[in-house]
Design a protein that fits this description.
heterodimer; A: mainly alpha; 2 strands; B: 8 helices; Binding-protein-dependent transport systems inner membrane component (chain A); cell inner membrane (chain A); MetI-like_sf (chain A)
Chain lengths: 254, 249
């Protein structure tokens, strides 16, 4: 009974912001102290499809950036974690992987901006991508480091003696073994890039308007309906990913 | 000789791990290598499997220089203390693994794997996941996965070390049966002298990187480094004491 009450309370607490966002997106002339909007309209949602609206383009840009960061950081992190595990200075490299987290992302962006400008990537998707990878890659490396134990090496060596080439050992044995961790790394790095505002805002110099940047802009303009629609769009991919990963997240054993 | 090892040496940093190892193994023989932990047994097996490179020395298999050959082309399977079954595959697919890598036809895979599973008394467990098996069953699957590719040499690194005494004894008997039946040549590394005497047809002792091969089981038993003679004396004295008429009073 108590656990049901707890689950119910958590569900309400989790669901209320979504309900509020939905009401803000379709409500018209909603003023304090009214509990509900006096009228409803789909104008803000319809404006998504209107010409000149940057929201859908922002959604596409965000998906492209977060998707690329997730794939590149996870793949790179897997390889880097393996190299670190086999290095004679594994502990030092591991400590170095924490360095990007010594600074908040905005400060990191300020520090790397001169290099981004010299690379002629300032204000481009490529520049933002590079900046986000600087944060996501060490994160994925640290997360995937736990996979490269002595046992992973033994699995790989066994596969080799059973007839696998290095590529076959990777595809047929190591990747399936690492898949639960890889999926977590993909999910986490996607979210890291998807919700980033500070670093993206500094490196994009206002030119790369991701969905998160747009939400902040609408909030700044006090455009509640568009901010709400943009926020709902912002929450859609993570909600889908959560749904897809539900089985893995609820699993008790690895 | 099927396998000829000559003057094999290996150092890790300043530490010599193997020193001028020389030995030979004819087809169908089981060389039991007895030795303590850290004596270089694992390094020797890994060099033979192609997973480590020696600093000096030669390894010939049927007269062919094995050192430039990658592990996947050596047709030698290295079995660890842990069965290391692939958790994402069923028992059937674990045993079929080496055949699928070699792109053997589907019908042949079904036929050979089914036969192997029956032989190892695992027929009823074919569709189970590895975590549903007991320790002994897992080790049998591991054996089946190795044997099915008909290895030229089986390298065993204390494969029964993690099993309880009864399962270990059963596995030793199973090992004897299947290696004789399939005419498998193997190098069996163990720190247990009783296990060495049970599974071996030929015997060697490896300590601090030096390998001593014995011409007969008598020399192996009598060598004080193996401690077998001392153990026999101990058990004989126990037996004598236990059977004295006034012992129980």
């Amino acid at each position: 009974m108590r656990s049901k009450l707890l689950v119910g309370t958590l569900a309400v607490l989790f669901g209320l912001p979504f309900l509020l966002l939905a009401l803000l997106a379709v409500g018209e002339g909603w003023r304090f102290p009214a509990a509900l909007p006096p009228a409803f309209s789909l104008a803000a949602v319809r404006s998504l499809l209107g010409s000149g609206n940057d929201l859908l383009a922002g959604l596409g840009r965000s998906l492209l950036l977060a998707g690329t960061v997730a794939v590149v950081a996870t793949a790179g992190g897997f390889g880097l974690a393996r190299a670190i595990a086999r290095s004679a200075w594994a502990r030092h490299w591991e400590v170095a992987s924490y360095l990007p987290y010594a600074l908040p992302p905005v400060l990191l962006a300020v520090l790397i901006q001169p290099f981004i400008i010299r690379l002629h990537l300032s204000g481009s998707v490529g520049g933002v991508l590079l900046g986000l990878l600087l944060v996501a890659l060490p994160f994925a490396t640290l997360l995937l480091r736990s996979f490269w134990t002595q046992q992973a090496t033994e699995y790989e060596q066994l596969a080799r003696t059973l007839g696998c080439t290095p590529g076959q050992a990777l595809r047929q044995v190591l990747l399936p073994l690492a898949w639960p961790l890889l999926r977590t790394a993909l999910f986490q790095t996607f979210l890291l890039a998807w919700f980033d505002f500070g670093l993206t805002n500094v490196l994009s110099v206002g030119k790369v308007r991701t969905l998160t940047v747009q939400v902040f802009a609408y909030v700044g303009e006090a455009n509640a309906p568009l901010a709400a629609v943009a926020s709902l769009l912002l929450l859609l991919p993570p909600a889908l990913l959560l749904r897809l990963n539900r089985a893995a997240l609820l699993r008790n054993t690895p | 000789m099927l396998l000829t090892v000559a003057y094999l040496s290996k150092r890790f940093g300043d530490q010599p791990v193997l020193r001028d190892i020389t030995c030979g193994l004819a087809a169908g023989q089981v060389l039991a290598v007895l030795g303590r932990s850290g004596g270089g047994k694992t390094t020797l097996l890994k060099i033979l499997a192609g997973l480590e490179t020696p600093d000096t020395g030669t390894v010939l298999l049927d007269g062919q220089d094995l050192l430039p050959v990658p592990p996947n082309e050596r047709q030698m399977v290295y079995l660890y203390q842990e069965p290391l079954l692939f958790p994402h595959l069923t028992v059937f697919e674990n045993v079929a693994f080496g055949l699928r890598i070699r792109q053997v036809g589907k019908n042949e895979i079904v036929q050979r794997v089914s036969k192997m599973l029956e032989e190892l008394d695992l027929g009823a467990h074919a569709q189970k996941a590895p975590h549903q098996l007991s320790g002994g069953q897992r080790q049998r699957v591991s054996f089946g996965r190795a044997l099915i590719i008909r290895p030229r040499l089986l390298l065993l690194d204390e494969p029964f070390g993690n099993l309880d005494a009864q399962t270990r004894a059963d596995m030793q008997q199973l090992f004897l049966r299947v290696t004789r039946q399939h005419q498998i040549t193997s190098l069996f590394v163990t720190h247990d002298s009783r296990e060495a005497l049970t599974v071996g047809t030929h015997f060697a002792y490896l300590d601090r990187g030096l390998l001593t091969s014995f011409p007969s089981v008598r020399e192996f038993i009598q060598d004080p480094r193996t401690s077998i003679a001392a153990e026999l004396t101990f058990w004989e004295s126990i037996q004598r004491t236990a059977f004295q008429p006034d012992y129980e009073t």
